[in-house]
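About this split. The held-out portion is used to measure sequence recovery: a designer receives only the structure tokens and must propose an amino acid at every position. Recovery is the fraction of positions where the proposal matches the reference. Here is one held-out target exactly as it appears in the evaluation file.
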């Protein structure tokens, strides 16, 4: 079942699977939970994410713990003596340190380096990207990861959506863009997969490049993006994460965007491509430096389409709306 408001439910294994009794006095899950729960100043979500990693690795992917959360405040088993609000300079320093460790982990190309990043930053600005990289690296080594069982007849859960990362050359996505204020369609966007690299999807012969999750790396206007995780690989109601990334413009200059995102629910939406049962994600944050407020809302139907179904974005500054757009799926053609 999904967690009621204000709670976190922790399961020893993923939905529809079984848990190991372990070889000691405790089961595999309990053994790792007892160790991680003693970590000072660790938020509860980080405790369980570290447990998940440890159990997965010890079981070679045959047991993967699962959590459902709707906590609205931070909780610690061993709380810090005091919690102080960090200055922008301190936050910038911490982010730079984290980004350097993630970059090093990517360049190393080793499972151990990616695992070390996840253990150190289980809820980090690149943690969702790290999980996808770890999945792919372990699969190459022969790990057969347990699958999720989403029982449609179970009224106590909204289930989990997992994005299909197996793109095909020729996959075609057509979106239409609508101004949210005037409701006028202002452009049509056609993206056709022309190449698939190790961790990139290339559209329209290089005009658009994204990662496997759909996060933009290069835009048709020449702007390039730092590693971001607006989109993730798994969606479940209550899931929260953060992203911070730089946008480098083709004509010079850059912006830095920071957002907090959350899967707030499931709902059915109709777009020109059809009617979809979606997870709805909402995000809010800032374009740092120039002080623009950013609001995102998007819908994904992982069981049906591996790109988003619709996205709405609002950009405000000093209470004034600078830009508002809705991008929605008009058609989707899967290559044969």
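Reference sequence for scoring:
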């Amino acid at each position: 079942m999904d967690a009621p408001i204000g709670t976190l439910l922790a399961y020893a294994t993923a939905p529809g699977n079984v848990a190991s009794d372990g070889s000691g006095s405790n089961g595999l899950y309990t053994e790792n939970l007892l160790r991680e729960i003693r970590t000072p100043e660790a938020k509860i979500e980080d405790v369980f994410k570290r447990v998940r990693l440890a159990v997965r690795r010890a079981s070679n992917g045959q047991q993967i713990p699962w959590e459902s959360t709707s906590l609205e405040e931070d909780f610690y088993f061993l709380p810090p003596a005091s919690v102080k609000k960090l200055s922008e300079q301190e936050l910038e320093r911490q982010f730079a340190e984290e980004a350097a460790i993630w970059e090093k982990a990517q360049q190393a190309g080793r499972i151990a380096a990616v695992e070390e990043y996840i253990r150190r930053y289980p809820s980090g600005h690149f943690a969702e990207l790290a999980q996808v990289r770890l999945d792919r690296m372990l699969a190459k080594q022969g790990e057969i990861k347990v699958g999720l069982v989403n029982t449609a007849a179970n009224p106590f859960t909204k289930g989990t959506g997992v994005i299909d990362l197996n793109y095909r050359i020729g996959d075609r996505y057509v979106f239409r863009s609508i101004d949210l204020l005037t409701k006028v369609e202002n452009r049509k966007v056609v993206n056709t997969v022309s190449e698939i690299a190790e961790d990139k999807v290339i559209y329209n012969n290089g005009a658009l490049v994204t990662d496997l999750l759909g996060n933009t790396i290069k835009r048709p206007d020449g702007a390039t993006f730092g590693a971001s995780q607006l989109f993730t690989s798994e969606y479940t109601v209550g899931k929260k994460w953060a992203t911070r990334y730089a946008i480098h413009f083709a004509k010079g200059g850059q912006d830095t965007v920071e957002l907090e995102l959350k899967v707030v629910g499931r709902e059915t939406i109709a777009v020109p491509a059809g009617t979809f049962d979606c997870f709805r994600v909402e995000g809010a944050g800032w374009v740092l430096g120039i002080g623009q407020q950013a609001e995102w809302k998007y819908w994904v139907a992982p069981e049906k389409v591996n790109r988003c179904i619709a996205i709405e974005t609002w950009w405000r500054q000093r209470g004034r709306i600078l830009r508002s757009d809705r991008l929605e799926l008009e058609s989707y053609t899967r290559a044969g």
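Annotator remark: The longest helix spans residues 88-108.
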